[in-house]
């Protein structure tokens, strides 16, 4: 496992990795870093699908697993005119991969359950090479089969996974069958309810990756926390020849240095470099070449330091205010799961237009294109796992699952300069089991990647209500976090917008606070007075009062209002207004800007004028 050597120092963590390897993630291979830098063949395109609400492709009528040719993964064809076979991928309709199924066919909008996917490919394998089948993401439970045999399972809708298929691939007629099931359940992450659409399907690209026998599986290279010179990290080789020399080359810095790998294929890297740091004003990326004796990979990587000092957040040693916005992974051109570079460019372009230097990618790891685009455009990122609302805190299995999702997110994104914060939870209720669950995740994040800050979106408490309202940040896990996040809905779920004027905030901690959510719904084009719910004027006034209040919080160091764009949610049923959309967006699903957009934009211009970042 990728993180095994990393985590051996920490027994409990190592144990969870082993358990995961044995249980929920059977047979997935270690993740390959930077697949864009590899020789790849895409399997994106039209896949044949069978919608299977009763799971007849997997279970017989007594709910026992099917072992015979009725099991869909066999892709069996009748051998005679008399043979009974009740499925046929090749005459079943198609859906696009990547893509959610809900928005590709009207009858699937509310569908939650199983869909089977099939794709075929031919492949010419050269001697000495290895081949991996890589999924950017599929929601939620996935079984993958190649040529009628199980490759493995994956659980979790928003992180990548891969399988080695070197010994199983044929010259021609390969068929991949994937069972994707997005049924919600209480023990999952997220659990039964969430305020976003449960988009099912193979929602991110599927790729064949060709690598040499001994290859560079992963590497990590970032500025050490608090340093503007020390590039620290590691390289991890995979294959039979683990002891090699690894050369790190950054031509623009005139840097070349060789490091030996140990018997586990790992090299520790330390470079003294003259770095032009990455920042929102100058999102500098360097071409970094990592070359072993048997493999070579190149990637654009930026270097910046991020740390806290008391209540301040320091970017490259300088205090910074995070002018952010929250974003769901929904396409700006049509309300469906986003996955493409174009989607990323538009969404992040809107954030830039607002004057942001920061985005909260809520509430789960977004597709990789978003992170790479944030690197290029100069937007700092809060990255998040879907530990959301009501999780089964007492379940060891659920914790393993959350840890695995965190690990996969960090493994994919740990070289992105844009990522400054890992968030481990959103609006979770304090309890002893919740506290220890989250503490484990915070510890995992710090261990896996000591260069980033760890946060969580907490819930504050109202401690006084008289002439003044006093709200306190007080949570047992706050001490474990580097940065405090807090969601509040003054003016929407509680109080009136004007009540923000008489609200004061206190905190028991010498730590920075990011107001990770506030906001209210408005239907674009609906105009009324500022006390009328759902009107643009109500939302505009709410933002004005909120901003006036936020300016008075002495320990506030950033904010990510809820939210950039209206997004689909099954919880939002009000006809004529919501129509299954959460309307807290500053733009609607067609990109039309509401009045509040300009209120926030103006505030961010003011803040920007007053600081360098
Ligand atoms: C929240 C949640 C977010 C919801 C939002 C809302 O606190 O974190 O997922 O969408 O409130 O609109 O109620």
Give a quick precis of the structure.
The protein has 613 residues and is an alpha/beta fold. The protein has eight helices and 33 strands. Helix 6 links the parallel strand 24 and strand 25 (453-459).
Q: What can you tell me about this protein's structure?
A:
The protein has 613 residues and is an alpha/beta fold. 17% of the residues lie in helices and 30% in strands. The strands form 8 sheets. It has an 8-stranded parallel β-barrel, surrounded by 5 helices. Strand 11 and strand 12 (230-238) form a beta hairpin. It binds (2S,3S,4S,5R)-3,4,5-trihydroxy-6-oxo-oxane-2-carboxylic acid. (2S,3S,4S,5R)-3,4,5-trihydroxy-6-oxo-oxane-2-carboxylic acid (GCB) binds at residues 195, 363, 426-427, 487, 517, 562, 582, 584.
Main traits of this protein?
about 625 residues; alpha/beta; eight-stranded parallel barrel; six-stranded antiparallel β-sheet; 8 helices; about 15% helix; disordered N terminus; binds (2S,3S,4S,5R)-3,4,5-trihydroxy-6-oxo-oxane-2-carboxylic acid
Q: Which sequence of strands runs across the widest sheet?
A: 21-22-23-24-25-28-30-31
The whole-number mean of residue pLDDT values reads: 95
Contiguous uncertain segments of 5+ residues: 1-25
- List cofactors, ions and other ligands: (2S,3S,4S,5R)-3,4,5-trihydroxy-6-oxo-oxane-2-carboxylic acid
What level of helicity do the residues show?
10-25%
Radius of gyration computed on alpha carbons? 25 Å
């Amino acid at each position: 496992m990728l993180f095994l050597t990393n985590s051996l120092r920490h027994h409990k963590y190592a144990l969870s990795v082993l358990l995961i390897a044995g249980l929920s993630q059977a047979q997935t291979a270690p993740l390959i870093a930077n697949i864009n830098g590899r020789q790849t063949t895409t399997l994106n395109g039209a896949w044949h699908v069978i919608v299977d609400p009763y799971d007849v492709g997997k279970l017989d009528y007594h709910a026992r697993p099917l072992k015979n040719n009725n099991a869909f993964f066999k892709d069996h064809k009748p051998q005679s005119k008399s043979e009974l076979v009740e499925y046929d991928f090749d005459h079943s309709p198609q859906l696009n991969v990547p893509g959610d199924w809900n928005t590709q066919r009207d009858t699937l909008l509310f569908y939650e359950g199983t869909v089977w996917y099939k794709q075929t490919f031919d492949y010419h394998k050269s001697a000495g090479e290895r081949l991996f089948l890589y999924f950017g993401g599929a929601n939620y439970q996935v079984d993958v089969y190649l040529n009628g045999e199980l490759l493995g399972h994956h659980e979790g809708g928003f992180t990548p996974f891969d399988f080695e298929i070197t010994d199983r691939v044929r010259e021609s007629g390969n068929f991949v069958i994937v069972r994707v099931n997005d049924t919600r359940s209480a023990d999952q992450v997220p659990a039964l309810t969430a305020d976003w659409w449960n988009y099912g399907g193979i929602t991110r690209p599927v790729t064949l990756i060709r690598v040499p026998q001994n290859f560079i599986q992963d590497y990590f290279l970032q500025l050490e926390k608090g340093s503007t010179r020390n590039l620290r990290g590691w390289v991890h080789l995979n294959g039979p020849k683990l002891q090699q020399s690894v050369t790190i080359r950054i031509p623009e810095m005139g840097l070349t240095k060789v490091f030996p790998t140990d018997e586990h294929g790992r090299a520790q890297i330390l470079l003294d470099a003259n770095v032009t740091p990455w920042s929102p004003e100058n999102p500098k990326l360097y071409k970094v070449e990592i070359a072993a004796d048997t493999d070579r990979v190149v990637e654009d990587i930026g270097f910046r330091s991020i740390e806290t000092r008391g209540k301040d957040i320091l970017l490259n040693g300088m205090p910074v205010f995070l002018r952010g916005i929250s974003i769901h992974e929904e396409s700006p051109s049509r309300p469906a799961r986003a996955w493409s570079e174009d989607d990323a460019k538009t969404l992040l372009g809107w954030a830039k237009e607002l004057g942001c230097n920061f985005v909260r990618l809520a509430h789960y790891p977004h597709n990789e294109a978003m992170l790479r685009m944030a690197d290029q455009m100069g937007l700092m990122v809060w990255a998040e796992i879907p530990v959301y609302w009501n999780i089964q805190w007492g379940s060891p299995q659920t914790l393993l699952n959350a840890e695995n999702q965190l690990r996969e997110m960090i493994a994919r994104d740990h070289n992105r300069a844009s990522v400054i914060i890992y968030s481990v939870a959103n609006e979770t209720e304090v309890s002893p089991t919740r506290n220890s669950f989250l503490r484990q995740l915070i510890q995992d994040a710090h261990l896996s990647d000591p260069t980033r800050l760890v946060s969580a979106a907490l819930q504050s408490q109202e401690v006084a209500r008289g002439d003044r309202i006093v709200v306190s940040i007080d949570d047992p896990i706050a001490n474990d976090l580097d940065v405090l996040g807090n969601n509040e809905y003054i003016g929407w779920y509680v109080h009136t917008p004007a009540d923000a004027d008489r609200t004061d905030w206190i905190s028991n901690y010498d730590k920075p606070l990011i107001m990770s959510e506030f906001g209210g719904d408005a239907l674009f084009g609906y105009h009324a007075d500022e006390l009328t719910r759902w009107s643009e004027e109500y939302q505009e006034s709410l933002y004005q009062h909120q901003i006036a209040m936020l300016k008075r919080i002495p320990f506030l160091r950033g904010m990510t209002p809820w939210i950039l764009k209206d997004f689909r949610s099954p919880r939002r049923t009000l006809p004529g207004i919501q129509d299954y959309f959460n309307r807290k967006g500053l733009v609607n699903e067609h990109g039309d800007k509401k009045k509040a957009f300009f209120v926030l934009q103006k505030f961010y211009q003011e803040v920007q004028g007053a600081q360098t970042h």
